[in-house]
Structures are given as C-alpha cells and as structure tokens.
C-alpha cells in the first residue's frame, strides 16, 4: 500500500510585518503542540515572504519546531546578473524544504509560462528542495468544462524533462483560479476530479511508482470548516492555503483536519 504523508502548506503571500511573521510561526507551533497534532497525519509547512525566511529559520532551528518552511518563488537562473532575483541555492542555504512555483498570481501578474515554471522546478530540485508546482483553470475554462484538459496540460509542460524519481518526490497543487481568495471553495468532487486526473497523467507519463508517491494538493479558499470534505477525497493529499494560513488557530485547525 502507498502511504503519502498529507501536506498542509500556508502561503502567506505578501502579508504581515516581520514581527507578526515571527509571532505567527510561534503561535502555530504552540497551537499544534497544545492540540497534540499528529505530524504523521499532516506535515506542516509555512511559506513566508523572502524577507522573513532567516528569522523563521532561526526560530524553527533554535526551538526545534516541528514546522517546515519554504519560499513563494525562486529564480529560473542559477546565479549572476539577475537583479532582484533569489536563487534556489540561496533558499536551500536558508533551510527551505519547499518552493512554490507557478502560483496563479505569478502566472497572471508576471507572465510565467509552463516553460518558466518548469525551469524553476528544475532549479529547486537541483538544490535539494521540493517544488510545489501550481496549476489551475480560470472561470471561463471551468464554465466550458475544460478544467481537466487545462490542468493536465499545465502539468505536462511544468514537469517536462523530469525523471520518474523527481516527479515522485514533488508536489502538485491544483488551485482553480476562481477559488483563490474568493471564498468560493471547489466542491470535494471538483477537487477530486482534477487531482485524480493529475495522478493518472503522472501514471501514464512516469509510471506507477511516481503516480502513487506524488502528492497532489488542493488550494482555493480552504478553511478549517471545509477542509475535512476535501481531505476525504482519495487523490487529495493536502492543501495549499492562502488567507486562512495567516491565523494560527485557523491554520492549525486545517492541519488537524482528521
Ligand atoms: C493560494 O493563494 O494558494 C490560496 C489557495 O489562497 P486562498 O486560500 O486565500 O484562497
């Protein structure tokens, strides 16, 4: 039997000041320990802005907090004259375990294509981090019933050239754009449909082992109150959470979906 440890990742986006960031990580860790969170039931990851990563590292290492952390983006380039960019090597040195690549906000506002997302995923993997590769359809595609085709197309482009072993170790996040930050969560069946299709694509392209190991998350207006139905779906292995990850109690409640 395959066991995929569920993953709950909180994407803070461009929110909180530095002190609030530090307090949030501490509160989250306290709340999880207070409620005796079972980390085998959900790995907990916070994804702060770049400028908070050093402090989060100090907290997590210093207090041995059972929380992992990652970055919201990474450069597609290794190093050099790319003013303003942050390399995968820099993030790995800060102890990041994860890197979100291809979030819909990056695809929309920064013109990131599947080729760019693929290059970023490759950089993350080469530096020993796990990419969380985001895909998802907009409202028009959903209304036309094209969500599976759209998302499988994005996965195909974003994972191009990766080995079965690399795909087995990474994370895909299905985030329908119409559900992000809107309060409109996909139904559990809608989440399952696309997550299952992503896994079946991986099965066809990279084989059974990769398909059974790759973790596929759902993201889009997840809250403590709606997480259980989503997590009950067989092909949903966790959630990528935006707004609700900014409150320690709420995010802890999501982590404790079981
Ligand atoms: C996200 O940005 O990845 C996200 C899912 O946001 P929210 O939970 O706020 O919809």
TrEMBL record:
<dbReference type="GO" id="GO:0004807">
    <property type="term" value="F:triose-phosphate isomerase activity"/>
</dbReference>
<dbReference type="InterPro" id="IPR013785">
    <property type="entry name" value="Aldolase_TIM"/>
</dbReference>
<dbReference type="InterPro" id="IPR035990">
    <property type="entry name" value="TIM_sf"/>
</dbReference>
<feature type="binding site">
    <location>
        <begin position="242"/>
        <end position="243"/>
    </location>
    <ligand>
        <name>substrate</name>
    </ligand>
</feature>
<comment type="pathway">
    <text>Carbohydrate degradation; glycolysis; D-glyceraldehyde 3-phosphate from glycerone phosphate: step 1/1.</text>
</comment>
<comment type="function">
    <text>Involved in the gluconeogenesis. Catalyzes stereospecifically the conversion of dihydroxyacetone phosphate (DHAP) to D-glyceraldehyde-3-phosphate (G3P).</text>
</comment>
<feature type="binding site">
    <location>
        <position position="221"/>
    </location>
    <ligand>
        <name>substrate</name>
    </ligand>
</feature>
<comment type="subunit">
    <text>Homodimer.</text>
</comment>
<feature type="binding site">
    <location>
        <begin position="11"/>
        <end position="13"/>
    </location>
    <ligand>
        <name>substrate</name>
    </ligand>
</feature>
<protein>
    <recommendedName>
        <fullName>Triosephosphate isomerase</fullName>
        <ecNumber>5.3.1.1</ecNumber>
    </recommendedName>
</protein>
<dbReference type="Pfam" id="PF00121">
    <property type="entry name" value="TIM"/>
</dbReference>
<dbReference type="InterPro" id="IPR020861">
    <property type="entry name" value="Triosephosphate_isomerase_AS"/>
</dbReference>
<dbReference type="InterPro" id="IPR022896">
    <property type="entry name" value="TrioseP_Isoase_bac/euk"/>
</dbReference>
<keyword id="KW-0312">Gluconeogenesis</keyword>
<feature type="binding site">
    <location>
        <position position="181"/>
    </location>
    <ligand>
        <name>substrate</name>
    </ligand>
</feature>
<comment type="pathway">
    <text>Carbohydrate biosynthesis; gluconeogenesis.</text>
</comment>
<comment type="similarity">
    <text>Belongs to the triosephosphate isomerase family.</text>
</comment>
<feature type="active site" description="Electrophile">
    <location>
        <position position="103"/>
    </location>
</feature>
<keyword id="KW-0963">Cytoplasm</keyword>
<keyword id="KW-0413">Isomerase</keyword>
<feature type="active site" description="Proton acceptor">
    <location>
        <position position="175"/>
    </location>
</feature>
<keyword id="KW-0324">Glycolysis</keyword>
<dbReference type="InterPro" id="IPR000652">
    <property type="entry name" value="Triosephosphate_isomerase"/>
</dbReference>
């Amino acid at each position: 039997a395959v066991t995929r440890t569920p993953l709950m990742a909180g994407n803070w986006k461009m929110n909180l000041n530095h002190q609030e960031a530090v307090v949030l990580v501490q509160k989250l860790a306290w709340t999880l320990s207070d409620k005796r969170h079972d980390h085998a039931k959900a790995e907990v990851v916070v994804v702060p802005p770049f400028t908070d990563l050093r402090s989060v590292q100090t907290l997590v290492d210093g207090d041995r907090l059972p929380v992992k952390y990652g970055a919201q983006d990474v450069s597609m380039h290794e190093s050099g004259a790319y003013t303003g960019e942050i390399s995968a090597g820099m993030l790995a040195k800060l102890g990041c375990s994860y890197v979100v690549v291809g979030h819909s906000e990056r695809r929309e506002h920064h013109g990131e294509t599947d080729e760019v997302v693929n290059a970023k995923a490759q950089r993350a993997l080469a530096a020993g981090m796990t990419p969380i590769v985001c895909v998802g359809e907009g409202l028009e595609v959903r209304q036309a019933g094209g969500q599976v085709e759209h998302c499988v197309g994005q996965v195909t482009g974003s994972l191009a050239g990766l080995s079965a072993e690399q795909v087995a170790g990474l994370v895909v996040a299905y985030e329908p754009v119409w559900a992000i930050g809107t309060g409109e969560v996909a139904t559990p069946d809608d989440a399952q449909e696309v997550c299952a299709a992503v896994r079946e694509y991986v099965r066809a392209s990279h084989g059974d082992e990769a398909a059974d190991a790759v973790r596929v998350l759902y993201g889009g207006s997840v809250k403590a109150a709606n997480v259980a139905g989503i997590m009950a779906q067989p092909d949903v292995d966790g959630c990528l959470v935006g707004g609700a990850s900014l409150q320690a109690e709420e995010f802890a409640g999501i982590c404790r979906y079981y």
